[in-house]
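#structure-requests
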Amino acid sequence: MTDQNLSTQSQLRSHWLVVGFLLVLLIAYNLVCHIWGAELRINLDEAQRELFRSVFYGVAIILFPLTNLLRFILIRLNQTMPGDKPAKQRYFVTTTVALLLIETVAVFGFVMFILGDDFNTLYIFSVLGALGLFLHRPKIEELAAIDQALSAKNQ
């Protein structure tokens, strides 16, 4: 690897800490449900749970492309907006916003479990949340593109 690539990877350390924190949080949801699941459950009526589940699935379906679009827009804004913030800081905000937005999908599973749904719903939303974390992980190429655009603009 080149020195430039190693430097860029070290700049992503805080970005990856956010990913790690959200992944640990996702695992914690599942562990809490397995360990203290019986005490946490409210056990709503099936019809009410079905309505919540349908709304959460609909929101999850909308959140995936919406988060992708938002991330794309934020990356382009990072490259073109004036200001003296470095590329690392701009990209950190972009990845954090995208990751937090997609992490809400995993929270839906935790909420549905508390409302009385089975582990199946928890697992579905957890896998969707993990998929979202994978899709919106920090990427060296995006940070390098932002850095390159800012350097070209400042010349």
